[in-house]
Design a protein that fits this description.
Blueprint (H helix, E strand, L loop, with lengths): L5 H15 L4 H47 L4 H9 L34 H7 L11
């Protein structure tokens, strides 16, 4: 962290022992440890707040992207056609005038040329219904 070698650390401890004295050295080390703990806590809090700001920024970007996708309507058929024909024109393979086949012609049904039969001739042609015996 501070890039201090063992020999430099030993010199600092000896100077602190001579200046502060052996009686007050443990209290000085405890106070220095508390300061270091507070400094670490402040650094962690700063890092957490920075991470929260970055996460919020990413969430805002993601929210904007979702809103943009919801606003644009996607036409699946157009997307497929764009993927299949990137130039916009389907490939013809030499059939320039391709047209759908004509439907087959159906014969028209015309009434017979003679006059239509009258109702009396129709009733004469049909046999009269007979009663059938009931089954028991």
């Amino acid at each position: 962290m501070f890039d201090i070698a063992w020999s430099e650390l030993l010199v600092i401890i000896v100077v602190a022992l001579v200046v502060v004295g052996p009686k007050d050295l443990p209290r000085l080390m405890r106070t220095a440890g508390q300061w270091a703990g507070r400094a670490r806590a402040m650094a962690d809090q700063f890092r957490r707040s920075f991470d929260d700001i970055a996460r919020q920024s990413e969430l805002d970007e993601l929210r904007n992207e979702v809103n943009r996708l919801q606003e644009t309507r996607i036409d699946p058929q157009a997307e497929i056609e764009t993927a299949m024909y990137p130039t916009g024109n389907p490939i013809n393979f030499g059939n320039d005038d391709v047209s759908p086949p004509a439907p087959p012609e159906t014969p028209s049904v015309e009434p017979p040329p003679s006059s239509t039969p009258s109702s009396s001739s129709v009733s004469q042609a049909l046999p009269e219904p007979t009663e059938t015996p009931a089954r028991t």
